[in-house]
Automatic annotation (TrEMBL), chain A:
Component of the COP9 signalosome complex (CSN), a complex involved in various cellular and developmental processes such as photomorphogenesis and auxin and jasmonate responses. The CSN complex is an essential regulator of the ubiquitin (Ubl) conjugation pathway by mediating the deneddylation of the cullin subunits of SCF-type E3 ligase complexes, leading to decrease the Ubl ligase activity of SCF. It is involved in repression of photomorphogenesis in darkness by regulating the activity of COP1-containing Ubl ligase complexes. Coiled coil: none annotated. It comes from the Eukaryota. The keyword Nucleus applies. Pfam families: JAB, MitMem_reg. It is found in: Cytoplasm; Nucleus. This is COP9 signalosome complex subunit 6. GO terms for molecular function: metallopeptidase activity.
Automatic annotation (TrEMBL), chain B:
Pfam families: CSN5_C, JAB. Belongs to the peptidase M67A family. CSN5 subfamily. It comes from Gossypium darwinii (Darwin's cotton). Gene3D superfamilies: Cytidine Deaminase, domain 2. This is MPN domain-containing protein. It comes from the Eukaryota. Its cofactor is a divalent metal cation. One of its GO terms (biological process) is negative regulation of photomorphogenesis.
Length: 320, 309
């Protein structure tokens, strides 16, 4: 039984931002390795025999995460695979160097921030790997993804650990401490993640279905906001009635949130908002105009075809 | 949850085909069957039929990487390679990686510089468990649509001669961000001298005036393939959970602010086209406005190319 040594919260004060690309990367790596180990059944009869045993294999995959660190903010942008060397219980170093060079050529701003792995919990052996990476980055990160699909889960099964020197039983030791993180996306990333997540109609779908899809996205986001505010409201009402013990830190956070709302009432906001609104209206007007003139053109075409002067039909004359 | 109920209602009302629920058998696409691939490479069913490949399946990871890379280039074209395999008449793209070259339109052989990078990367990938081969290339056309330019067509024809099976993908990151849907196109060229039997109507897209000629001259030399996307069951699960975190970004995104200069550029391009059409009108001979003249004006405005003249 491996003893897991972890503290519940980190005290380093760094904020972590994780991009969805890293999550999809790790998941893809894991799925690939898993499916190579469990080849799909070629015939239906072998499926029942092999499928039962092979389902149990859940390989651990390892890789490196890269990104940017600006001051106290650490932003993880990308990741790539690494090989695990079972003889040294560590990651294959020359491979890492090679991959790092390749990635430096394409993404010159990214540095190695740490490493990732899959599994349900951090293990003792992970500390070896962690220590080995410390010569590249003094305080590497450990990103752990739990690949078990649990339909009741509400939270992302991704945890970020940092290492800290704690004194336990008089001996200073390195242990993993969990840190919180936020998801950060660039606009393009968000659109493609949204696209793949909901498999919206990509091309061919008429403008109406695309608009409907876009509006549904916004609609569900607003619903989400609504439900969260409702939860907060419920909680505050309960606190007022006395059902729930008062928690001052939470109350402070809520009050600071509410104090930010009047920002919308300022004059500068109104000006900007109206300008943007006018711009949108103008462009819609222009588009409508172009559409109208095209339709008019077609109408004249059709009219001229019907009343063609070169072929006498019932004595009608051409219309210019 | 409310969001899922809303989504399901909408899907029902609009007869959307149900997205397959995450189930382990859909992950079989990730398995790389070396023997089957080697066999199909030997058989080369595409050598006889220029229209052999009809569909493209792109994995979630490949799409994400390509779009992010394309966007990170800003207004400069970037390019990269795609890794995958073939499956009957479909090309499956599993992954993509960026190349350290700037694919400017004047360099025919941008890939020559990147060969070393490509070989290194493929080797390391194979070691790390990514067994598929390079199956195509992608590049970006920031702001001017998804089509193959003259240089692209000649590069792709060369590729299709020597590196079959090969696919060309074009992404427009600017239009993606401004319209909120991914602007992507997958193409294969016809061999020299081949005349396509039917004339498929391609989806209309506006193309800026300075690129129209290039588009028109070559638009019959290649055909577009249908693109569909796939993801693993774990991807499905993770993406669903991810939604819980970034619905905030969906609300806070504002395409107008981000793409102000692109929209202004489009408007000025449209103005130029209208002016050109008007000049055409006034400078042509005075007489009754025949239907042929009107067609010419409409062509200038709406990009269709007239082959006969």
């Amino acid at each position: 039984m491996e003893i897991k040594r972890m503290a519940s919260s980190s005290s380093s004060g760094l904020t972590f931002k994780l991009h969805p690309l890293v999550i999809v990367n790790i998941s893809d790596h894991y799925t690939r390795v898993k499916s190579q180990l469990n080849p799909p059944p070629l015939t239906s009869t072998s499926a029942t025999v092999n499928g039962v045993e092979n389902q149990q294999q859940a390989p651990r995959v390892y890789g490196c995460v890269i990104g940017v660190q600006r001051g106290r903010t650490v932003e993880i942008f990308n990741s790539f695979e690494l090989l695990y060397d079972p003889s040294t219980h560590s990651l294959d170093r020359p491979f890492l160097k090679k991959k790092q060079e390749l990635y430096k050529k394409v993404f010159p701003h990214f540095y190695i921030l740490g490493w990732y792995s899959t599994g349900s919990d951090a293990q003792e052996s992970d500390m070896h790997i962690h220590r080995a990476l410390m010569d590249i980055n003094e305080s590497p990160l450990y990103v752990l993804l739990n690949p078990a699909i649990n339909p009741t889960q509400k939270d992302l099964p991704v945890t970020i650990y940092e290492s800290e020197l704690h004194v336990i039983d008089g001996i200073p030791q390195l242990i993993f401490v969990r840190s919180s993180y936020t998801i950060e996306t660039v606009e393009a990333e968000r659109i493609s993640v949204d696209h793949v997540a909901h498999l919206k109609p990509s091309d061919g779908g008429s403008a109406a279905t695309q608009l409907a899809a876009h509006l549904t996205g916004i609609h569900s986001a607003i619903k989400m906001l609504n439900s969260r505010i409702r939860v907060l409201h419920h909680y505050l009402v309960g606190m007022q009635k006395g059902d729930i013990p008062c928690e001052n830190s939470l109350l402070r956070q809520v009050s600071s949130l509410l104090r930010r709302l009047p920002a919308i009432e300022s004059e500068k906001f109104q000006d900007d908002f109206l300008m943007e609104y006018n711009d949108t209206l103008l462009i819609t007007y222009l588009a409508m105009f172009t559409n109208c003139s095209s339709t008019m053109n077609e109408l004249v075409d059709k009219f001229n075809t019907a009343y063609d002067r070169h072929s006498r039909r019932g004595g009608r004359t051409a219309f210019i | 949850m409310d969001s899922t109920i809303a989504q399901k209602t909408w899907e029902l009302e609009n007869n959307i085909l149900a997205v397959e629920a995450p189930d382990p058998s859909s992950d079989f696409i990730f398995y790389y069957d070396e023997v089957a691939q080697a066999m199909s490479l030997k058989a080369k069913p595409w050598a006889n039929d220029p229209h052999f490949f009809k569909r493209v399946k792109i994995s979630a990871l490949a799409l994400l990487k390509m779009v992010i890379h394309a966007r990170s280039g800003g207004t400069i074209e970037v390019m990269g390679l795609m890794i995958g395999k073939t499956d009957g008449d479909a090309i499956i793209v599993m992954d993509a990686f960026a190349l350290p070259v700037e694919g400017t339109e004047t360099r025919v052989n941008a890939q020559a510089d990147a060969y070393e990078y490509m070989v290194d990367y493929s080797q390391t990938n194979k070691q790390a468990g990514r067994l598929e081969n390079v199956v195509g290339w992608y590049h970006s056309h920031p702001g001017y649509g998804c089509w193959l330019s003259g240089i692209d067509v000649s590069t792709q024809m060369l590729n299709q001669q020597f590196q079959e099976p090969f696919l060309a993908v074009v992404i427009d990151p600017t239009r993606t961000v401004s319209s909120g849907k991914v602007d992507i196109g997958a193409f294969r060229t016809y061999p020299e001298g081949y005349k396509p039997t039917d004339d498929p109507i391609s989806e209309y897209q506006t193309i800026p005036l300075n690129k129209i000629e290039d588009f028109g001259v070559h638009c019959k030399q290649y055909y577009a393939l249908n693109i569909s996307y796939f993801k693993s069951s774990l991807d499905c699960h993770l993406l669903d959970l991810l939604w819980n975190k970034y619905w905030v970004n969906t609300l806070s995104s504002s395409p107008l602010l981000g793409n102000g200069d692109y929209v202004a550029g489009q408007l000025s391009d449209l103005a130029e086209k209208l002016e050109q059409a008007e000049n055409h009108l006034t400078h042509s001979r005075i007489g009754p406005l025949g239907t042929s003249r009107k067609k010419v004006i409409k062509d200038i405005l709406f990009n269709s190319v007239r082959q006969s003249k």
